[in-house]
Amino acid sequence: MAEEFEAIVREYQDRIFRLACSILGDPASAEEAAQEALVRIWKGLPGFRGQSSLSTWIYAITRNTCFTLLGHSGPRTESLEDPAGRREAERRSAAAWPAAPVPDVMALVDRLPAKYRQVVALFYMQEKSYDEVANMLGLPVGTVKTYLFRARRSMAEELARGRVRKGEGNGLPGF
């Protein structure tokens, strides 16, 4: 069992942290939640029956751990990632792609309502399927599709209004 857990930690620790950060909006709290989630995963691993994919099970534990830390049953998302990490990514991106300015997609995502940000983060950034996102967030698949549609529409409207600063940034597939 120790080997399986080590493999889980190697494969999922960054994803667990990013999901916790997207829910909690604070890297320090996200680190605490990620550690707690890994403890819960370790304790629950012998009972994992494979009724869902391993990643769905791990994300559900992480999500529930975050909600427990928040002290409520719904998401309250502030940001998808640490601002310092975003600045570093933008700096690297600017060095690698100096010629073509693109919209700051993360600024667009940050302006979305919390329920849309979570779905966008899982679907585009974590590359989860509609079904996986639905299972992880406890939503119907149709709701996930609706949230993604509304998020894309909202982001496109922001771009059309020119309300996003231009510069080097990260892009999401499909935008």
3D architecture notes:
The protein has 175 residues and is an all-alpha fold. The protein folds into two domains: 2-70, RNA polymerase sigma factor, region 2, helix turn helix motif (Rna Polymerase Sigma Factor, Chain: A); 83-167, Winged helix-like DNA-binding domain superfamily/Winged helix DNA-binding domain (Arc Repressor Mutant, subunit A, Orthogonal Bundle), CATH 1.10.10.10. Helix content is 68%, strand content 2%. It has eight helices and two strands; from the N terminus they run ααααβααααβ. The chain has a two-stranded antiparallel sheet with strand order 1-2. α1 (2-24) runs antiparallel to α2 and α7 crosses α8 (141-161). The termini are far apart.
Q: Which class best fits the helix and strand makeup?
A: mainly alpha
The CATH architecture assignment of the largest domain turns out to be Orthogonal Bundle
DSSP summary: helix tally: 8
Helix content range: 55-70%
The overall strand count is 2
Briefly note the CATH topology name of the largest domain: Arc Repressor Mutant, subunit A
How do the SSEs run, as a string of H and E? Answer: HHHHEHHHHE
Gross morphology is globular
Q: What is the terminal separation in angstroms?
A: 42 Å
Domain unit count: 2
Radius of gyration over alpha carbons? Answer: 17 Å
Placed side by side, the strands forming the largest sheet appear as: 1-2
Beta-strand residue fraction: under 5%
CATH superfamily of the largest domain: Winged helix-like DNA-binding domain superfamily/Winged helix DNA-binding domain
Report the CATH C-level class of the largest domain: Mainly Alpha
Low-confidence stretches: 73-81, 92-102, 166-175
Report the average pLDDT across residues.
75
